[in-house]
Amino acid sequence: MIRFFMPLMILAVIFLAGCGQEDTPEAALNEIKIALAERDSIKLAARADLDEFFSATYDATTIELAKRYDDYKAKYPDDPYFQHSAEFLTAYNAEHKDLHLNFLRGVSDSFFAKMPAPDVPEDNPTAYVANEFEKIRAATNATIKEVVVNENSATIFLELAGDNSLRGKFIGHLTFELGFSRDDKNQWHFDEIKNLDELTPALVDKAELVWINL
User: Fold this and answer.
1) Using CA atoms, how far apart are residues 173 and 191, in angstroms rounded to an integer?
2) pTM of the prediction?
3) CA dist 62 to 91, 96, 132, 196, Å?
4) Average pLDDT for the chain
5) Residue 18 CB: number of other CB atoms within 10 A?
6) CA dihedral sign of residues 120, 123, 127, 129
7) Best CA proximity match to 155, nearest among 172, 173, 129, 176
8) What is the pLDDT of residues 21-80, one digit of tens each?
């Protein structure tokens, strides 16, 4: 199961940076950063709908995985997930979507409740993943490289760089294109990862690295 959740956990690290006093996409990103640092789910919900984000990202990731399924099948012959077909993956993910998203909700609940990490991951998988996310978050630096703002939409180009720790080296260097939209009250909200097509191969490699070492 961690093969699928690791990419989403890495995607969650995008909420690391941002600055600004006006209501701008950068300010929205900064408020998300503060909400995560304070474990404040209400403050986070004002800038991002996690349920909607995870659901949309799940569907988008499934599409990207299916596009290159044959490549992953050849590259990872020991992973049963990639030893069928793109049609199998699409059907499998659709069938198990509710189960997987419920797990992610559990991770979110554990994170905001500050649940301690279990001695053994199997004792409380959601708390284990939540604590791993926090450790990865602490080992990652983020830099806004560019912001492109249109009338009611914006894209932030955010570069992530891991530190010299084991988890930092695991993250490495990744660039996310974050999509934001502005509502009728001129408030900016985070909506999506816009460059999943570019990121998915690297995220799969990282997920596989974790899986083969379990």
Assistant:
1) 22
2) 0.86
3) 10, 12, 23, 10
4) 88
5) 24
6) positive
7) 176
8) 568 999 999 999 899 889 999 999 999 999 999 999 999 999 999 999 999 999 999 999
HEC string for 164-205: CCHHHHHHCEEEEEEEEEECCCCCEEEEEECCHHHHHHHHHH
Question: How far are the Cα atoms of 63, 66, 202 from residue 73, in angstroms, in the given order?
Answer: 15, 11, 15
Tokens of 20: 């600004």
Of the candidates 193, 182, 191, 175, the one whose C-alpha atom is nearest the C-alpha of residue 149 is 182
Identify the CA nearest to 115 among candidates 133, 128, 102, 104: 128
**CA 10/CA 174 separation, integer angstroms:** 10
Helix (H, G, I), strand (E, B) or coil at 153: strand
The pLDDT of residue 214 is above 80? no
Answer left, alpha or beta for residue 16, where phi above 0 means left and psi between -120 and 50 means alpha. alpha
* Count of alpha carbons within 13 angstroms of residue 35, beta-carbon side: 21
pLDDT surpassing 90 at residue 137: no
For residue 210, the model assigns a pLDDT of 73
Q: Could you tell me the two tokens for 28? A: 């929205």
